[in-house]
Amino acid sequence: MNKWDERYSGSEYAYGLKPNAFLVEQATLLLPENPLRVLSLGEGEGRNATYLAGLGHQVHAVDGSAVGLAKARQLATERKVIITTQVADLTDYKLDLAYDLIVMIFCHLASPVRTHIHRQILSSLNPGGLLIYQAYSPNQLKYGTGGPDQLDMLVTLEELKQNFSPMQLLHGCIREREIKEGTFHTGLAEVTEFVARK
Prior knowledge:
- This protein is globular.
- The protein has 198 residues and is α/β, with parallel strands linked by helices.
- The protein has a seven-stranded mixed sheet, sandwiched between helices.
- Helices cover 29% and strands 31% of the residues.
């Protein structure tokens, strides 16, 4: 059993049932009422995917944990929404469809994998497509309120600006936020936030 299967194996939802607050803020501001084709990378147990599906969007959730995605499908059934799921290792994952919105919320990867995924995102977004991205910043190590304990897996705003430079930046900052998401994201944190349009 891998780390994430183990984390998601309990009956409780490790990061809670509510969608990520930053995602909700940006969805409220930016997303149209017409259905979008959405990809959520590192979706986990489905809290964000089911929220977006509840808004009427067509959501594909990808994660490395079969256990997490089984709970995501269960949550979708309970919430009477439809999502599709795919167990995949993001190390060599290929985005083979075009999307109107790609979401990365606390999907922390080693820097070479991040670079690979960022390139995939850039090529897979439709013209006018949106990227909504939130991750812990390198300073999060001082807070100890969630996220990886390896500096290489934390994300700077400059990295995102550089990797997605062809896109129109709509929102980019590093800020303190009170994060209350289940057991593992709890307390004041420093996060990197990034929203851009292709």
